[in-house]
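Problem: given the chain below (230 residues), write out its structure.
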Amino acid sequence: MSQTKNQKLYLSKVDRTKEYELNVGVGLLKECAVAKFDETVEVSINLGVNPKYADQMVRGTVTLPHGTGKKVRVLVLAKGPKAEEATEAGADYVGFEDYLQKLKDGWIDVDVIITTPDNMGEVGKMGRILGPRGLMPNPKTGTVTMDVAKAVNESKAGKIELRTDKFGIVHSVVGKASFEQSALAENITVLINRLIAMKPSGAKGTYFQKLVLSSTMGPGIRIDKATLGV
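Solution.
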């Protein structure tokens, strides 16, 4: 199917000026996901915050009940018993000095990095490498912890980080186009409820402003926030 035909499909099904009820919007997204691969589904949520101010920053985590549909590769930077705990929990990569060196050499074939508080002295030195890639372990996201097994299990189960960009927008993966419509809707609802619970003290005016749903190759579909309970 050519791109022109895809565009005609999108225009025939999606009214860009309209806001859809969540389940209807998810249904439209699935109808428009016609690529030859399983498209990733994302949401972009505009929040009424200015991240330049500390009391308006939104950052935390949420565990999606149906996961993201992506195999999460977990690296645990640990030694001794904690390294053994990570291996038993199913971490993809476990080690310390060897993996620190690999990261310095440019290896970043992981999605999540977990470590223990006592190792942050060394891991913290990797900030310039890991920070820009969103891989720096952080206590706020549960990736600096003594409960390594729990962190590995949560990451594998679909725990993701939520964070506003400099424009106050949260971008997040919520699944794959092949997911059942109800599963996608539930993932989105759980994410929204988590964002509401994370509302910062300094947020002024309308906190939850706009949500747009899209797949990798599909059109943006605006969701009526009144149907989201916000």
